[in-house]
Amino acid sequence: MSSRSILLTAGAVNSGAVLSHVVSLAREMERRGHRVVVASPGGPGARRLTHVPLCLRTPWDLARAVYRVRQLLERTCPDIVHAHGQLSAWVCQRARSGYPVAMAVTYHEEESPGFHWKHLARPGDLTIATTEKVRHHLIREFGFTGVQLIPAGIDTNLYAPGDQATAKRQLELDEAMVVSAMGRWRGPEGSLVHCLIDACDFLLDKWPGLQLLVAGDGSGRADIRVRAARAKSRVILSGNVTGAATVFHAADVVVATGRTALEALSCSRPVLVAGRDGIVGPLTPASFSRLEQAGFSARGMGMPLDAGRIRDLLDFMLARPGLGRQLGLHGRRLLEEKLSVSAVTGQLLEHYALTLSKRGAG
Fold first, then answer.
1. What's the distance, CA 214 to chain centroid?
2. Long-range pairs, 165-173, Cβ under 8 A, ≥24
């Protein structure tokens, strides 16, 4: 396949998962010899790319973003612009008006079908959903046709297995068991951490020295800090960390949903799928396909979030380290086969080529 010029855009300021996916795609595309520019709110990963700031917080931001993307189109002359998310798609559609460039749009979640939002939703020459649930939502609520299913890929080189003892030393943890959680702890998301603290307190007699490592930041962190100060178990609030894989390497069990669950699995760590929307259970080869269709979310997939249920599942997994290692190894193999950024980028580039061919540009 010949080298292409690609503009990737993402405007979801609060969605670290989307930005992580876009950055991973850009790196892999560059590795394959394509020229890539990323326009997004930015982040540590984006600094190593050809990056242009793009923020979509206010109506003024939207107007400015249309102008900025139009400038990028004129300066970089991409073969295709690939927008991620509803607002980003609207901006790119306006910016490319009258400009002969193909447009792809990826939807990562079930966007609001309300009156105003419905007018912002835009299909592209190539429209993509990252999960089957999102694909059905786009068809049902917005009337989109020809929606392709291409999952969000995980960089299995960045999130590779590592030594637990080394990670514990780096994070200044004790040798006792570690439960890890990582996220943007805004409002309801923080409820998971409160349940984890309660669960670890319950388990302290059985698992002496049990440690809960909570990485990430957000508006709910102050409440979490207050609750952590009353905990009987050791709770470490590490904030945002450089090298997220280290948080996973240190863990005996990672509690997560969505992309964070997959990043932990890529590090060959056992994962308990649980979050603000409920509890599913251990991520196993048997549950992988079912969870994949839902984007590894707990929404509507299992039991309501409850400290007692979390306690019982953590106890089950901590008591079976051999099973945990097996689940981690099997999970990583599945990721490499189906959801690695390399596999996903290959699918994406094939669809780019087909889309450009239909437009007479490929």
1. 17
2. 166/249, 167/246, 167/247, 167/249, 167/250, 168/250, 170/246, 170/250, 171/213, 171/236, 171/238, 171/246, 171/247, 171/250, 173/211, 173/213, 173/236, 173/250
- Give pTM, 2 decimals: 0.84
Of the candidates 149, 154, 9, 6, the residue with the CA atom closest to the CA atom of residue 68: 9
pLDDT of residue 8: 93
- The whole-number pLDDT of residue 1 equals 61
**pLDDT at residue number 13:** 42
What pLDDT sits at residue 114? 64
* CA 362 – CA 358 distance, rounded (Å): 8
Lookup: tokens for 222: 């102050």
Q: Residue 14's pLDDT is what?
A: 44
- Tens of pLDDT, residue by residue over 29-38, are 999 999 999 8
Residue among 202, 187, 189, 156 at smallest CA distance from 345: 156
189-214 burial: b if 16+ Cβ within 10 Å, else e: bbbbbbbbbbbbbbbeeebeebbbbb
> How many whole angstroms separate alpha carbon 89 and alpha carbon 12?
11
Place of tokens 């309801």: 188
- Please tell me the distance from the alpha carbon of residue 182 to that of residue 244, in angstroms, as a whole number: 9
- The Cβ of residue 299 has, within 10 Å, a number of other Cβ atoms equal to 15
Take residue 248 and report the two structure tokens written for it. Answer: 């996973």
